[in-house]
Amino acid sequence: MHETEILNAEILAVVSHELRSPLTAIKGYASTLLLHKNRISPDEQQEYLSAISEASDRMEIVVERLLQLSWLETGATSVHLTTVDLGHLMKEAIESFGQRQTSIARAHGRNLTSEQTVFDVQIASQQGTIVQVDRQLFRIVLDNLLENAVLYAADNSHVEVGISALQSFQCQAIDGGFLRGQEESVQQKLLSLSFKPVIEIWIRDSGIGIPAEHLHHIFDRFYRVDTRLTREVGGLGLGLTICKYIVELHNGLIWAESLEGKGSIFRIVLPLRER
């Protein structure tokens, strides 16, 4: 019980900080506008309103992630499988992200422009990317992974995105020692998918990478690797947890491979169902 209370206190502290910071900014700028409206130039007023908008976006992200996690953990989310072209869904997600990239980055504390990230898309033939998934839930996964790849990448970087159908899945990460040291459930899932038809999705960035000692924890709730950039970007540490829940609801597996300072690659493997 004591450990549970400590965990709850830590969670409350993280959530409080992520909500209090943008709320403080909103109150500060709004109060200044109300008290000194006649003494503030139109350009300054626009700057203050933009700051309020960005802080509001940050709060919206926090609340949305908390709600998504709550729905997934309590079982309130049902999986509605439909026939989906994952290649088309990925292109939709990239296009949507490109349109919102600047506002998303600013909400997370980074100053990026939509021209700074180039997506290198490698997608198999249309027939090979058609699967049975919950379209809405899987779009959340793609959005979260694309967001991470851009936010933690170097400026003017490339993000590689790929989808391919494999008739006999052989996980290279197993040969590289990935299987050893993983949770038993992960080992069993990898082995159960081996040599079976699957669809594989990967998103590779050229960012700061993830230290080896953190790789096996990044999907834990509220877990964040403590670096200068992660402190700059901010966030709850829930995006990858949500991705893991959704992928596992589809009987799939998600994991990360990374070299510190050289970027990361996130992989998803889903079993192919007969249509």
TrEMBL record:
E.C. number: 2.7.13.3
Keyword hit for Metal-binding: no
Assigned keywords, A-Z: Kinase, Phosphoprotein, Transferase, Two-component regulatory system
Enzyme class: transferase
Domain Histidine kinase: 14-274
Substrates-to-products reaction catalysed: ATP + protein L-histidine = ADP + protein N-phospho-L-histidine
Annotated SMART domains: HATPase_c (SM00387), HisKA (SM00388)
Molecular functions per Gene Ontology: phosphorelay sensor kinase activity
Pfam families in the record: HATPase_c, HisKA
Gene3D superfamilies in UniProt: 1.10.287.130, Histidine kinase-like ATPase, C-terminal domain
Name of the protein this chain belongs to: histidine kinase
Species this chain originates from: Tengunoibacter tsumagoiensis
